[in-house]
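Need residues for this backbone.
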């Protein structure tokens, strides 16, 4: 057993929740951002501003035409797998081999491909690391083992994992349509908390394929955390903190939350209000990429995702036009209500002595 532990340490194989559900999941979201999300944004810009280069077919593969954005989106599987491998400290041959693994697991996982990529890429990475540089023909053995294990597991697990993820996501979306008030609160609060925790709300939403009203509630929860923390900590962090949290990430406050968890009450209460308002009053839907549901105001990706969904719905004939009410709802849920409600709740916390000066100060 001691020899085995020494081997794992030498290979930097750490079997832990942090490594797999924090580091790997967070990296997977970055891979999605650099492929699917960027591709979606490029396509939206090209379509809305009539940019010929961005709307023209630049490649045709197996009878499918791809634009610039389409090519970026198509590489989401490899991008996620390589990002996961990077987070797990894979050596070069393992890292590059994960390109094939990610493509296979994402394709075979169908709509729930991101969850399949997460599981398969982690195992393929660790097995590849275990055999890396253990033979004199490492350049052959490491890629063969990594790709063999990855594609074998993809064929075996990916379809089932994909169906399972989509089943859970479909239940959440069905429940939100059925009970928009209660589910609006639940989804908004849970996804918002996940965004601030050192895990990836974007990857979770992508893995579950969370769109529609449930996606809108998720956007509301994320915005409540990001804009809420940014505004209520303005006296401590000024403009730099406003920007870094408001369009960056509220995860920056995790150190302060550990010291005083009660500073988290205000944005959580805000998300419990904006979530049902999004689902019941504004009927805010995320009909863009599911990963956008968990991004909030980070780079305005959540808002771009909602807008992209509107455009897609108009093109599909399910929506006639983007109305003033649509824009009003998006602005209220994304920016105005979090910026107003969170400081109010925080001021109550200050009066009760739960929050003190300096509790929200970023290092």
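Answer:
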């Amino acid at each position: 057993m001691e020899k085995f532990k020494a081997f794992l340490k030498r290979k930097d194989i750490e079997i832990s929740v942090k490594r797999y559900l924090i580091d790997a999941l967070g990296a997977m979201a970055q891979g999605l951002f650099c492929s699917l999300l960027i591709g979606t944004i490029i396509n939206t810009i090209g379509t809305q501003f009539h940019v010929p280069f961005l709307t023209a077919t630049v490649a045709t593969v197996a009878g499918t035409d791809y634009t610039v954005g389409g090519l970026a989106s198509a590489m989401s599987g490899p991008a996620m797998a390589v990002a996961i491998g990077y987070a797990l400290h894979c050596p070069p041959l393992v890292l590059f081999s994960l390109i094939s693994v990610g493509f296979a697991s994402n394709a075979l996982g169908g709509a729930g491909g991101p969850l399949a990529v997460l599981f398969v890429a982690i195992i393929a990475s660790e097995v590849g690391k275990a055999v890396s540089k253990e033979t004199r023909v490492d350049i052959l053995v490491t890629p063969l083992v990594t790709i063999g294990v990855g594609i074998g597991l993809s064929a075996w697990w990916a379809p089932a994992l994909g169906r399972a993820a989509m089943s859970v996501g479909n239940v959440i979306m069905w429940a939100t349509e059925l009970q928009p008030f209660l589910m609006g609160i639940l989804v908004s609060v849970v996804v918002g908390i996940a965004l601030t925790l050192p895990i990836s709300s974007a990857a979770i939403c992508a893995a579950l394929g969370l769109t529609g009203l449930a996606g809108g509630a998720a956007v509301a929860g994320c915005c409540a955390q990001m804009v809420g923390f940014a505004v209520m900590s303005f006296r401590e962090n000024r403009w730099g903190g406003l920007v870094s949290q408001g369009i960056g990430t509220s995860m920056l406050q995790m150190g302060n939350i550990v010291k005083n968890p009660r500073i988290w009450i205000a944005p959580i209460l805000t998300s419990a209000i904006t979530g049902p308002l999004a689902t019941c009053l504004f009927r805010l839907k995320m009909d863009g990429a599911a990963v956008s549901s968990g991004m909030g105001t980070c780079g305005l990706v959540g808002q771009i995702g909602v807008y992209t969904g509107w455009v897609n719905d108009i093109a599909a004939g399910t929506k006639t036009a983007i109305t003033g009410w649509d824009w009003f709802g998006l602005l209220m849920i994304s920016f105005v209500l979090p910026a107003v409600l969170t400081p109010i709740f925080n001021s109550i916390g200050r009066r009760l002595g739960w929050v003190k000066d300096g509790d929200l100060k970023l290092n």
